[in-house]
Amino acid sequence: MKEEYAIKKESGWKIVNEEEKDNIFNFSEEYIRFLNKSKTERESCNYIVNELNKSGFRNIDDVDKLSSGDKVYMINRNKSVYACVIGTDDITNGINFIGSHIDSPRLDLKPNPIYEDAKLALFKTHYYGGIKKYQWTAIPLAMHGVVVKADGKKIDVCIGEDDNDPVFTISDLLPHLSQEQNEKTLSKAIDGEALNIIVGSIPNGDDKIKENILKILYEKYGIKEIDFNSAEIELVPAFKAKSLGFDKSMIAGYGQDDRICSFCNLKALLDINNPKKTVVAMFCDKEEIGSYGNTGMKSNMIDLFMNEILEKQDELNISSLNKTYCNSIMLSADVGAGIDPNYQSVSDFTNCSFIGYGVELNKYTGARGKSGSSDANAEFVAKVRGIFESNNIKYQTSELGKVDIGGGGTIAFILAGKGVDVIDCGVPIISMHSPYEISSKFDLYETYKAYKAFFESI
């Protein structure tokens, strides 16, 4: 009776054969390579656009007319991408959207970062997104980003990834002297203003270490101190993503929130040809800080992209955009919180996700009384269930911890505000927002299959 009528939770690894396991592991190796090449939103954007170009997608600015089967994309300031495959159905009957984000928690350099103190040269940082500050001390860090000079010249920066590169780090207090620090709460033990990067120690002839570092920066990279005013330099973990565990069933690496869903989103999109419904994949920026700014989902850039698509199909009129949105469905492709065996007390065991048990559906996020959540309606949840179950996709439903314990948000509410039916759907993660997150290779592959099935649904 229990097996017939009750939900049966079991590891996805129990239902895969050797051929499927090989597919999962091969897919995961490609994902690990993507993670190691895409540690920032700009690098992720470049990777995605290169893959789109190789698969026959064109920049929408280069296209005058669109018809079924056409594949186009739009780049937003090299930090977000929107891509589309035109379907055979009238676009105003609705689109199948999947939206993921390519930014991750990190440390950003301040506009005037360099200073000298206690006979060392350091860079000041400002953390980005929800981090536990103590996790970012005493680990190797790499600098990624771009410096734009006043004349518009761009200098790409990537220091700390090559074996011959130096790395950077934030010091932490030795245990012999940390009695006062130990008495503080975790959130107070490391102050945000103390997340300063050690970058050098050799003085010049005038005993100025800062001046020596500035000389090196100019001679090697052509960067002057004032150029940091117009730079975007991110400090990210310098270690590589790798397989985790004796059985290599998991992946450990930085930036899996939310590049794991973005990778699945991209791979699913690349497999779509001549769909009935038009499909749109969104790879957005700024989700970790509320989706603000002109590269975040709260901007009008998605509306611009959609209007371009409608106009180039001769479908644009005063109501066509709103009609299209209100007839559309979407997966908000973002990670969920996999239950952590070391911290089980924060989870409701009957409403949590286990890594290795399939893609996660999260009907609502938010905090406390579902604050900030879009809360998918029952009819749409049933539709998504039907898509997954008819395609033999292993899924689980979850919440983000116990009620009133915490909470979080995604981009779901933004598209829901335009009239789209939306539900969160992604990979459960352990150690989310840490410098070294954990995912399951089975869940990764199952999420790709789920997204592909959703794109192809009618």
Task: Give a quick set of tags describing it.
458 residues; alpha/beta; Aminopeptidase; Aminopeptidase i, Domain 2; 2 domains; nine-stranded mixed beta sheet; six-stranded antiparallel beta sheet; 12 helices; 22 strands; 28% helix; 24% strand; globular
Explain this structure.
With 458 residues, the chain is an alpha/beta fold. It has 2 domains: 2-104 and 254-456, Aminopeptidase (3-Layer(aba) Sandwich); 106-237, Aminopeptidase i, Domain 2. The protein is built from 12 helices and 22 strands. The protein has helices at residues 2-5, 18-37, 41-54, 179-182, 186-189, 209-221, 256-270, 301-311, 320-326, 378-390, 412-416, 441-456, and strands spanning 58-59, 71-76, 80-85, 95-101, 106-117, 120-128, 141-148, 154-159, 197-200, 231-237, 242-244, 250-253, 278-284, 329-332, 336-337, 359-362, 366-367, 395-397, 407-408, 421-426, 428-429, 437-440. The strands form 5 sheets. The protein has a 9-stranded mixed beta sheet with strand order 1-2-3-13-4-14-20-16-18, sandwiched between helices. β11 (242-244) and β12 (250-253) form a beta hairpin. α2 packs across α12 and α7 (256-270) packs across α12. The longest helix is centred in the N-terminal third of the chain and has 20 residues, at 18-37. The relative contact order is 0.17.
Overall morphology: globular
Name given to the CATH homologous superfamily of the largest domain: Zn peptidases
Beta content comes to 15-25%
Can you tell me the CATH class of the largest domain?
Answer: Alpha Beta
**Number of helices, counting only DSSP H or I runs of 4 residues or more:** 12
Give the termini distance in whole angstroms: 34 Å
Please report the total strand number as a whole number.
22
The CATH topology assignment of the largest domain is Aminopeptidase
Q: Let me know the largest β-sheet.
A: 9 strands, mixed
Question: What is the CATH-assigned architecture of the largest domain?
Answer: 3-Layer(aba) Sandwich
Rg is 23 Å
Give start-end ranges of low-pLDDT stretches. Answer: none
Helix content: 25-40%
Domains (count): 2
Based on secondary structure, the structural category is alpha/beta
Rounded average pLDDT: 95
Strand arrangement across the biggest beta sheet = 1-2-3-13-4-14-20-16-18
